[in-house]
Specification:
Layout lengths: L1 H11 L1 H13 L13 H20 L4 H16 L1 H7 L7 H20 L13
Helix pairs in contact: 1-6, 3-4, 3-6, 4-6
């Protein structure tokens, strides 16, 4: 579902506005200051990996606090790529992977809170 959300935001132009906002936050000149752009395939690959990776990690982790911590850390790490890309003189196109990480993690945490996950079960002790 997070990929569908990102595709919808891309078609509506909202991702470009979010990327321009990120560019404005990490530079003084805004989006026009970056002569280089990441290839589209690399951005979409990162988006797919973020969506599926976040869900897989959250669903394989025991405990709500640990899941929330992993989700928060992943969201911050994806957002932290904006200044890194700006330092490399590339337009910080992190909105797609960031939205995919946020939505995928939120959905996975919600799912895990409503269902009994195999990683949450305590194995029986041997006598």
């Amino acid at each position: 579902m997070s990929l569908v959300l990102v595709v919808g935001l891309e078609f509506s132009g909202a991702l470009e506005r979010m990327n321009d906002l990120a560019a404005m936050l990490v530079s003084r000149g805004g989006a026009g200051m970056f002569p280089l752009h990441l290839p589209d395939w690399a951005i979409w690959l990162a988006t797919v990996l973020a969506a599926f990776g976040m869900a897989a990690v959250v669903l394989q982790t025991a405990g709500t606090v640990r899941r929330l911590l992993l989700w928060f850390t992943a969201v911050v790490l994806v957002a932290a790529w904006a200044p890194v890309l700006a330092l490399a003189a590339r337009h910080p196109a992190v909105a797609g992977p960031w939205v995919a990480t946020v939505w995928s993690g939120a959905c996975a945490i919600f799912y895990a809170s409503r269902h009994r996950m195999p990683c949450d079960e305590i194995p029986p002790e041997d006598p």
